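Hello Y.,

Per our agreement to keep a running log of every chain we model this quarter, I'm adding this entry. I've kept the format consistent with earlier entries: sequence first, then predicted structure.
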Amino acid sequence: VGQFRVYGSSMSVVALVLVGTIALATALYTTLQPNVAAVDALYFAVGMITGAGGNEKVVENSPATLKLFTAVTMVVGTAIIGIWYALLTDFILGTRLRQFLDATRIPTENHYVICGLGNLGLEVAARLREFGCEVVAIEQDANGRFLGEARTLGVPVTLGDASSARVLQATNLAGAAGILAVTNDDMANLEIALTAKGVAPEVRTVLRYEDSRFAQKAEQVFGFQNVLSPTDLVAPSFAAAALGGRVLGNGAIGNDLWVALSLALPSDHVFCGQAVQDVAMLVDFVPLYLEKPGGKTLHGWDLLRALVTPGDTLHLIVPAARLDELWRVVPAALAG
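Predicted structure for the entry above:
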């Protein structure tokens, strides 16, 4: 809204200059030529300045100085009209009007602010919208490739630097449920998160940072709720898929990353012949359910007491740090 006011003031100044020029020309024509009616002088002045034409008889018999003034006014008027049309066209057909409309749609509370409309930012916005959450995005690139898609999702976009306190305040950050700094620049994300802490200390802050070692330190030093490394989130999924599991999803619980997957068990797998509860306690995973080849599904106590047989599919969640133990040789304690 503030940017709209600044832009609107420029248009107002040009409009006032245009009206002033028309008024000056009308006054001179009626003053220096008493026989010319005020309406005729106004009609000629508007037509002359706008290029629409007018009653040229107003200046046909006028003094040379007045004709010279008319010629100069035509040139000046053309420039003023050109500037006015340019500003008006940019406002209507350019990004100004869209920015203003987006600003009017920003929620006042319980919304999420996403900083950075890249692949990750757009996907996070889409997921939050699926959950019924209100989302506001901040993007620095006015020609960003995902701006249109974000607006299609019903997400208002604020163009500007998300590390600026003024830009964050424009998104009503103080009333937001959380802010997510997910640009492709780690240092920019850190700067955004620190600025957000200064603007709204109580708002939940989620920070993307590629360096997993720094991510843990940032949580401790700066007090951010979640500093997530995409590499840490994705690597376990790739590893599990390579080892034969079908990854269903992953998520952070406390400071640990957990992976949900379905594990098809061939005849030579280390779990075959063992009770689900025994391998679950040893590897430290949480069994969800067990699918037998005939289509039978086991849950609850039946699941825990069931013996794993070749062809079974075990659905479970496991800490990412212990994924490899799902495929290790059976320890002596379990084999015995």
